[in-house]
Structure formats: structure tokens, C-alpha cells
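Annotated sample (chain length 248).
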Amino acid sequence: MNTVEIIFSPTGGTEKVANIIRRQWSESTVKIDLSDPESDFSGYAINKEDQVLVAMPSFGGRAPAIAIERLKKISGNGAKCTLVCVYGNRAYEDTLAEMEDAAKECGFQVIAAVAAIAQHSIIPQYAANRPDASDKKQLEQFAQQIASKTKPTASVPGNRPYKKAGGAGLVPKPSKDCVKCGICAKNCTVQAIDPATFSADTKKCISCMRCVKQCPHNTRKVNDAMVSIAAMAIKKACSVRKENELFI
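Output written by the structure step:
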């Protein structure tokens, strides 16, 4: 039996949460990176006996479409699966429901689900430094409860049909100080960045902020005014600390 981590974590927040849970089950794991646009996800073999964790962020209350698309190429073969959705302290809305539907379509048995908090990928003052020590302790307790679970979970929160998905409103751009190293284009989750100009295709970009996070020269940014408007729009929803939730 393997512990398998199927993860979409463009900026690392989702991976931090997933690793806290997974380490309670096993120090070693087989990792399937849904953010790799060059992987052949249909080629991965999941055994029925494997313990599987599927983790991805919530983008505007929905699961990232590209992550769901890639997940659906993997055959679950009846393996027991825990879903983890990570959000920046606003709301996760229909993310878990969408993940549950996709996982079941793949043939996984969903036995548990977790909604967890990590630092907001676009507006870092929200959920700053989370998951913190309190989160870690709680998530470890969740993992221990999940470890003894054998039957499918009754349900997860969310609406069907799902809420309408939003577009990529905040598209990072290179500043005048860009040295054209190419790291952003190489690591873009959806190959939206032109390797010649380093501009992003606004129709392809999913605003995951991976290029901003991985730029070694800090020269890739989103429009400050647009970020400020977005921050004000969700300030009320993000003003109160939200806690992690377990559905089992």
C-alpha cells in the first residue's frame, strides 16, 4: 500500500496543508503534481489498497478547472480518498462538492474531506502565516481521525449546480526590471506565458500567482490598484479568523 498525494499547489500553500495531514499517515509518499502541464496523468496507476489524498486550492469558491480536468484523467480503482481544499480565509463555497464529484467520477471512494486555511495567494495580508501552529495541531488531529475511517463520507458542503466560475481578473505582468530568465514561462501551470515576451495570455492565465511566487528577481507583479480593490471587496469576509473543518 502506498500513500499517494495528488496535488495542485501553484504557490505552495495547499502543499503545506496537505503535507501536515499526509505525514501523520506516512513519511514517504508518491506525489502526483497536477500543476505540471507536461505530465501524462492517464499513465498513473492507483491501486485499490492505496491511501490517497487529493488537495487543491479554492479559486473564487470553485476548484481550479485545470486541476479538475487533470484529476479526471487518473483512474482511482476504488482506492480510499481524502479531499483537501485550501482557501485564503474568505470562503470555499462549492470547491469540495466539485472535488467530490470529480473524485467519484475517477473511481475513488471519498471517505473524508477537509477545508483548511492558508495564506491568500494574491492578497497575503489575509490568513498571513497560515497554516500556523494552531492549524498544524488541528490538522494532525484530523489526519488521525481519518486514518481509522473505512466507509465513504456522507456528504460535503456545496451546491449543485456549482456557482459560476470567475475569470482571471488579475494577470501578472513582467516589470521593466525583468531579466528574461524564463523561469516564469517554464513553470506556468497552464503554459500561458510567452517565452519570447514573457507576457501572459489573458485567456489562458488562471491567476494562480505561481509565476509571481517563483520569480527569483521579484519582477513579476499584478496591478497594485487592482489588488487593493480586490482586498477591499473581500475585507469583511476575511476579517474574522476562520477555522479548519473536517467532514467525515
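Annotation: Residues 139 and 219 are 35 Å apart (CA to CA).
Annotation: The two ends are 22 Å apart (CA to CA).
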